[in-house]
Structure formats: C-alpha cells, structure tokens
TrEMBL record:
GO terms for biological process: regulation of ubiquinone biosynthetic process; ubiquinone biosynthetic process. This is Probable protein kinase UbiB. ATP binds at L130, A131, S132, A133, S134, I135, A136, Q137, V138, K153. InterPro entries: ABC1_dom (IPR004147), Kinase-like_dom_sf (IPR011009), UbiB (IPR010232), UbiB_bact (IPR045308), UbiB_kinase (IPR050154). The keyword Cytoplasm does not apply. NCBIfam families: PRK04750.1 (NF003404), UbiB (TIGR01982). It is found in: Cell membrane. The lineage of its organism: Bacteria, Pseudomonadati, Pseudomonadota, Gammaproteobacteria, Enterobacterales. Is probably a protein kinase regulator of UbiI activity which is involved in aerobic coenzyme Q (ubiquinone) biosynthesis. GO terms for molecular function: ATP binding; protein kinase activity. Belongs to the protein kinase superfamily. ADCK protein kinase family. It comes from Tenebrionibacter intestinalis.
Amino acid sequence: MTPGELRRLYFIIRTFLTYGLDELIPKTRITLALRIWRRMLFWLPNRHKDKPAGERLRLALQHLGPVWIKFGQMLSTRRDLFPPQIADQLAMLQDRVAPFDGRLAKKQIEKAMGDVCVESWFDDFDINPLASASIAQVHTARLKENGKDVVIKVIRPDILPVIKADMRLIYRLAGWVPRLLPDGRRLRPLEVVREYEKTLIDELNLLRESANAIQLRRNFDNSPLLYVPEVYSDYCSQGMMVMERIYGIPVSDVAMLEKNGTNMQLLAERGVQVFFTQVFRDSFFHADMHPGNIFVSYEHPENPQYIGIDCGIVGSLNKDDKRYLAENFIAFFNRDYRKVAELHVDSGWVPSDTNVEEFEFAIRTVCEPIFEKPLSEISFGHVLLNLFNTARRFNMEVQPQLVLLQKTLLYVEGVGRQLYPQLDLWKTAKPFLETWIKDQVGIPALLRSLKEKAPFWVEKMPQLPELVYDSLRQGKQLQHSVDKIAQEIQVSRNRQGQARYLLGIGATLILSGTLLLINKPEWGWFPAWFVAGGGFAWLIGWVRTT
C-alpha cells in the first residue's frame, strides 16, 4: 500500500471506532480475534456514546464521504435486514446529507454560467438548499425566461479527489480478495469495483445526467406509470443542471400517501411494472431508485403515478442478457428449475461440465420455499445469500454488467415492502415477462424486424445486380485461387515423395557400399561406386526437400 492509501485506511478505521461502530460486531467465536484487536486500540475511544447506534452509523458513513454514503443508501432500503432504529437513520442519507455552504454553491453556479450573476437568469434563488445528497445538492429558483419553478443541481466542491482516494483503496482491497478467499477469483472483484467506480464518476457529469433524464422522460411520455421532470438543457453544464421543480409525496412517507387516499396496492404493483418496463422494453433503467429519488403525484391517488428524479446512474442490457434474464425469471415463476440450470450452463455463467441434475436440485432447495408467500414473508437478501452459496459450489462467476440491475431490484423490493407488504411480486411480474417473451419470438417480432430493416433493403435494392455480379466474380476468383493452391500443394507433395524415395535409395547404396568395402576389399573400386551413387542420390533428395 502507498502512504496515501494507508492514511485513508487509518482514517476509515478511526472513524468507525470513534463512532463506536465496533459495538455492532456480533459476539461470536469467529469475531473474537477482531474484538481483541479492537481492545488493543485503547487510544481510539467511542466519542459518541450519547447517540444511538443507528445515528452513529449514519454519521460515520456521512463523515467518510460519497462512496460510503452510496453504500448506506443501498442498505437503507433493506428494512428486512435491519431494525427500524437503524433503517430510519440510514434512510436520511438519501436526501438529508449535511449540505455545504449555499454561498459556495452560488459561486459554482455562476462559474458554470460563465461568471454571470445568478440573478441574470433566475429569480427567487434560494441560498438555502432544498435537499442535499452524497454527490450534489439542489437549490430552488424561478426561470426568468418563462417564470417556471425550477431546481438547480450543483456538484459538491472538491469531491473528485475524495472519490478517487477511496476507490484506490477499494481497488487495493479487491486485489486481495482472490488471495484471501478460495473462490475470490470467481467473484471478479476488480471488475465489480471498476463498474462501481464508473457509475460514481459518471454521476459527477451533470450533462450525462441531463441526457439520461431526457431519454427516460421520452420513454415514459404520457405514461400513467412514471413522470420524469423536464430538463432545461440550455442551462445545463458538466457541473450544473436545471430542471422542472416537482411537487409530490416522498414514496417513503407511507402515512402521507395513505392520508392522500393513494391506492397502495396499485402503487406497489406499478413500481414493479416500471422496473420491468425499463429493463426489458427500453433496455434503459434508472439504477439509483432509492426512496429519496422517488415521489408520488398528489393528483389522482386512485390511479397513482410515480415521479422519478436523479438519473445520474442508469443501466442497460444487451439483447442476449435481456432474453436470458427473462427466460430465467419465467422459469423461476414456473418452478422449472431444470430450465434455470440449463440456462445457466448455456449462458456460460457456470462451466459447461456442470452436473445439471445437481445444479437443478441445489436451485430447487434455495427457491422452492419462497413461492406462494406475500412479499412481507420473503427476504430477497436471504435468498441472494443462499444463491451465492449455491453459485460458489458450482463455480458460477459474478457478472459485473448485472450488478446495477441487482442493486435496482433490491431497491424495488425495499420500496414495495414499505408500500404494500402483501404484494405478490411473482404474480405482478410474470404476465409482463411472458408477454415480452412472446413479443420477441413470435410473429410480431418477425413483422417488427421486417419493418425496421425495410428501409435498408429498399436503399440497397438498386445495387442488387451489381452486388450479385461482384459476388459471382469474387467467387470465381476465389475458386481460381483455391485451385492454384491445391495444385501447388500437390506439386509439393510429389516433390516430398520423390525426395523421400531418393533419400531411401541413397541410404541403401551407401550402406551396401560400406559393407562391401569392409567384407570384399578384393572387389576394388566397385563398392566405392555404390557409396558415391548413394551420396549423389542423397544430395538430389535433399535439394528436392527445400
């Protein structure tokens, strides 16, 4: 490790200990050595004993910076894994991170606008942030151009060096995983960390987020499922983003949703539909769907509509990944574990020599107990842990391109659990996926493909005779080349055969002449002619081999 990495590691350990997070370590025999080591660090006492454990965990993650805050945001959606006093505190990391000075934010906005005063473009700029998160914070204002209420998003100052320092350390730790764990190489830790780093760095470019939001808004234009605020791209830059201000109920405020008369069951089901629509219909999904980025419209509570913001992290899947995942989901829903096992082998995610029968039985053992239960009784965290153990047994590799999808699915589950614990996730998703699969392999898919490619074929139609002529001419030239190569190979084979024959004759003559010289010296020069003839035959054979 470099001195900088060691300093950062010490800072992380010191932060955890000074916030007393060592108290969260379970007291088991496995953790005995760790707890003894903690006792030896007597100069790092818990300085926040007056605060509850959940608050100390939140403050520690917040103190460590954006990489750790993002981790806390993901944990906050898993209320099945943590008691309420911890989950509630982690939820505050979604949009209530300590803000930075609003005057500094104003200076950054003016710099992004080309050193122009904020008041020249905006009215009623609020120096106090509306919300603050791990990467950026937002301020409210009104556009002079059209009088619309907007929010201005600005990146936290000097955040990139902190992210890079943490990522260097995480890369170093990830490099140790294959050495420390027997199956560490299968986990592909460096690739997973590289994917995570890419998403964090992408979040620092607000032009990218603007483009993502515009694309997502277009995908759900006039949809009753999801509304994405309008982005005013003329005012956006790499460090600043301006978009429509929305008014909605935070999806985590269940009491307010119920007070507004929201159809909670339909809302939860639509959350699942939004996720699968983004993944399978659009191949473009919001990959940061924690509750701080999701609101519900006040209007039409009987027909609720989501409002999505913060599109800094998005994911996409290629055609093969989508097909593979959809078929896997449907096989799971139908409890066709044999199909699941075969799909894993066919995809190459497990070795081709895997015993399909054993793999099928292992998947059945993990997944069968979860069906026909309401969402409140299903812990995807527990299921994923069991599947991980199964994967380790059968040498299944982690797929970095699906890490974002897995994280988003966990977010969706967490939101669904809060809104409507009785939600049947399988019943909601299965019809959607079956319809999508039929659409991909049936007559509609063929007609759609013909429609998409028809302009290309029409464009190439006048060139068809010329293309056919060129193809025939190239075929003729290729056949001529093949015949010439075959003829050269045959000539070479003949020369090789003649060379072997001459070498054999030469060896026979040399051996015969040598024996005659030894046994019949009275024959004079006659044996010597045998040796000379054999040498000449050898020489000719050697020449023919070159």
